[in-house]
Amino acid sequence: MTGSLRFRLPAFFLVGIVISGIVAALIALRLFQSYTKAQSFSELRREASGLAQLYAASALEAADKGQRAPTFAAAKLELATGDRIFYVGASVFPGQSSGLKKLPASAVDPRVSTSDRPLTFEFVPPGETHTFLAAAEPLRLQKGAAPFGALVIAKPKTELQRQWLPLLERLGLAFLGGAAIAGILSAYLSRRITAPVLALSHATDEIAAGRYDVTVPISGGGEMGHLAERFNEMAAKLAESEERERHFLMSVSHELRTPLTGIRGHVDALRDGVVDDPELMQASLDVVAAEAQRLERLVGDVLDLAKLRAHRFTVLTEEVDMHRLVEQAYTSFGEEARRREIDFQLVENGDPPTLMTDGDRVLQVISNLLSNAFRWTPDHGSVVLEVATSNGSVSVDVADSGPGISGAERERIFRPFVSHDESGGTGLGLPIARELARALGGTIELETAVGRGSRFSLVLPLRQA
Fold first, then answer.
1. Taking the complete model, does pTM exceed 0.85, yes or no?
2. Mean pLDDT of the chain
């Protein structure tokens, strides 16, 4: 359970939210601490400045009237402000008991005794265990005069913590609420995200078990929709490939069984003495030889096609005179053309070039195309073998006056063992021709129409010697 994507995705999402919340809370707390400390120092400076000015004004007024220095009710002032009041330096109220505590110079910042400007600092008063925040204001009777002491206003630093606690409580509540919402949202999103992934996983298990009739529902767009669409295409192609493989094996077994059955029948008849007439024996031997030759051709074609599709077919590179090669192919079918009274023509548009390619394989492709043309061309028909050079390529066209090919059959004829004639064809000629053309770096193109014949074109790149 903990190793599944449905658990890990919301868990990682929630952990990320928690870490982000903690970092944000720590940053907010640190900023609030700095803010409250700065505010406290600012308040202490204002208070110290006000009390120092009050003392100076009262002392000058008393001196003008010839009176003693004013009293300073420290206890009442501390009660009113909530802060502690100290002084450093000479006696602020000579001859009077003001209630102020005098701090030794060693207890505070050393600058307090010598500076003529307000200062803020932290210190631990004598007899105390907690740190205080303090502001020191120089005491002087006249503006610009040298200070004779400093008034120190201080407050415990622990008071700041009492301001932080409400913030911590609110941050904690907000964090818990945010984590709960994030958890619910992450669980919902993880289900939305992992549902198509689990569907793909289930469909993959089905395909691994050999069941290709699975379809993953395409929900929405984006990457998951694209992945589901491509998966369905893959499953359909796998099903089609398995069907083709099954059909290929059945066709191979059927094509192999047919000549073997004929061979076995005639061999059994000869061995059992059923045929004793020399002419009939010779006829049986001729049939055995023909069927053996057909079987050899079939096995060779199957092996060639398998090697081509497995990319284990070796293609040689040599100088090939296309004029001589096309004439050789034309001559090899001349006898059949005369026997069937087929108008067989060779047309050369310009001088055929010399290519760097595999001549035997090119001849095999042309022969397969011619064999297919003669198979479908009726007696007294026409077959044209044409070679031309244009646009950096060499094309060898084979046109026939056969029945043509329908649109539905244009692709099927290039599949193994797809043959509708009864002349003994195996249905491997065109598939081998197309695979050989691809291995040679070329293509097989087809132009056809029902009732108007067909034109197959072998197009090879013009790589001259």
1. no
2. 79
